[in-house]
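User: I'm putting together notes for a lab meeting next week and I want to include a structural view of one of the chains we've been expressing. I don't have a solved structure, so I'd like a prediction I can at least talk through. The sequence is below, exactly as it appears in our construct file.
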Amino acid sequence: MPESQSTFIWYHAENLNMSEMKKWLKLVKEQTGAECRLYVRRKEGKTTFMESYADISPATTMAIEGLAAAHPLFNGISRRAESFLRIDEL
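Assistant: Thanks for the context. Below is the predicted structure for the 90-residue chain, given as structure tokens.
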């Protein structure tokens, strides 16, 4: 079984400052080495953010979520993390 996976973390948030989000992504990279692609969707009055990390370990996913739990940017925000393996790598 491969030790790397792609992880997608999504959450609804209306008042996140894009400048602060960029600082968050920089912190994640500095602390875990994981590079993130950040996506946003605004639909039906809701704003959804999706952090996408390719080829990271389960331990790195846990580290990212640990950082998020301690970061004031995400106070009161429910983050959902899901990880997937590429079928062609199984």
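A couple of points you could mention at the meeting. Residues 8 and 37 are 10 Å apart (CA to CA). The longest helix spans residues 18-32.

User: Perfect, that's what I needed.
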